[in-house]
Structure formats: structure tokens, C-alpha cells
Amino acid sequence: MNLVQTPRPQRPRWFRPSGGRPRPIRELLLIAVLFGAYKLGRLLANGRVAEAFDNARGLWDLERRLRLPSELDVQHALLHSDPLVHAANSYYAYVHFPATAAFLLWIYLRRPAHYRWIRWVLVTLTAAGLALHLFLPLAPPRMLTGTGLVDTGALFGPSVYGPPHADTVANQYAAMPSLHIGWAFVVATGLIVSTRGRWRWLWIAHPVITVAVVVGTANHYWLDGAVVSVLLGAVLLVVRPPVTARRSATVPTARAVPRPASASTVRASRGAREASPEPDRPRSAPRPPAPLG
């Protein structure tokens, strides 16, 4: 059966990044530009503290009207165990940036075609998150009084934040959306798509644990994770992964039907059979004479 390959239509390069490994100098410059944009966003967010707390109280009331589970229940589960709360604080402090950096380095070296896709997904998601940080400043739940939540990092350690007015690195009034959760989902998605094997689906544990950690430590609300998940879904619809193994559609062709032989061909074939000598047939052995008596 003959197979006819039908090529699949390709998207523009922006929607489906491809190519070899990009130059490291350009990638370092891109990281520097992103970090500068984050610092600029931190400066632009100054002076909006009252607005951030108003938005936090409104978001807390909205979650209660939506009957979402209380962040307080998750934190109470952590506070029942000192090792557990220390582990959650450490996960929040030491896993977010190192895990993302290690993932980017691995995919840059081992999956260069997928690296370009992940790079654009991460850049687009971070840019959308920074824009929302400026549009909607939001105090984290650990700063919101009257909820019963406590700052587990400050009480039990380790803590990554100091006094908000003296923090020159992080924008502590940028809880919406949670880039902790967004980046964790990017890491899991990249590892699942770029690798093979049934165990690769276990990488989804990273964002699941991150959600529990950021909520239990009172650094983010449930809706912070929900909003970043919607943003990431929109980004993945636009920035598509590379096609590493194209599966072409196969269409079976009609089987060849034997053509009837002409009369002259039939006569020639019959004459050749009659003219050929018939092979000698083996003679049967004579029977022995019957015994007398």
C-alpha cells in the first residue's frame, strides 16, 4: 500500500519558535533587561500602599462571597508541625528562583529548540504579570489584619522579606498575580513537553506544592494563583511549542488492478508451453515374482 504524505500547515515563527541554541550573550542581556523592568515596576509601585491594602480587603471579601476555601485552613495545617512550617518557608525562599534557573539552564543545554519556546512563554507571562502588578497593587494576606493569618516567615524563618518600606529588591505589594505559581507551572509544562516517559507527569507536583506553600505561608491568595493560571493558558495558546516529530497524515492509494492480457500474448504463451519438452516421468520399479508353493 502506497502512502501519500500530506504536510501540516506551519504557524508563523512568533507563534511557534524554532531554531538552534541562541547565543548566551544575548540571553544574558535579555535577563538584564527583564530585571531592569522589574526594578522599574518596583519604583512605579511606590506610594500606592493605601490602594494596595484597599484592594487586599476587597479581594478577601470577594473570595468569601465566592465561597472559596479559607487560606487560614491551609496555614493552620502547617502550624501544627514545626518541621512542616520550616519546610514550607524554605521552599518559598530557596526553590522559586534556583529551580527556575536550573530548569532554564538544563533546557538551554539539552533542548535548545524547546528553550526558545519556554523563553518566550516565561517572558510573556512575566511581562503580563508585571503589568498587572502596576494596574492592581495588592498587599499579601500576611499583611492583612483581622483575618487571623500570620507571617510564617517572620515568625519561624527563614524569611526573604524585610520591612516593606526598606525593601529595594522585591515589590511586596505585588501579590496579584503570583509569579511563584506561574513560573512553577512553566517549569512543569516545559519538562513534561520536552521529555518522554510516564514519570514526567510527576513534575506537576512542583506547582501543586508551590500553591500550597504560598497560600499556607500567607504570601498569596487563592485568586492570585487562579489569575496567573488563566494568563499562562492564554500565553500557551499564542506561543506554541516546536514541532519535533511531525506526524504526516497518510492516505492509502487505490490498489493496482491487473490489466487483461491481449489475445496475441495468450497465444504466444500457449505455444511456448506446447513447444517445451515434457519432463521425463520416473518409471515405477518392477514387482518381484510371487513365491511358489
Q: How does this model look, in words?
A:
It contains eleven helices and two strands. The chain is an all-alpha fold and 293 residues long. It has a two-stranded antiparallel sheet with strand order 1-2. α4 packs across α9, α5 packs parallel to α8 and α6 packs antiparallel against α8. The N and C termini lie far apart (73 Å).
List keywords for this structure.
mainly alpha; single chain; 293 residues
In short:
With 293 residues, this protein is mainly alpha-helical. The chain is built from 11 helices and 2 strands.
Itemize the secondary structure elements and their pairings.
Blueprint: E1 3-6, H1 24-44, H2 49-65, H3 71-79, H4 82-94, H5 96-110, H6 112-135, H7 152-156, H8 179-194, H9 205-216, H10 222-238, E2 249-252, H11 263-275
Antiparallel strand pairs: 1-2
Helix pairs in contact: 1-6, 4-5, 4-9, 5-6, 5-8, 6-8, 6-10, 8-9, 8-10
Number of helices: 11
Radius of gyration, whole Å = 35 Å
* Helix content range: 55-70%
Distance between the ends: 73 Å
**Main sheet specs:** 2 strands, antiparallel
How does the helix and strand content classify structurally? Answer: mainly alpha
Q: What is the number of beta strands?
A: 2
Low-confidence stretches: 245-254
Topology order in helix (H) and strand (E) letters: EHHHHHHHHHHEH
Strand content: under 5%
| Cα shape | globular
Strand order of the largest sheet: 1-2
| Overall mean pLDDT | 81
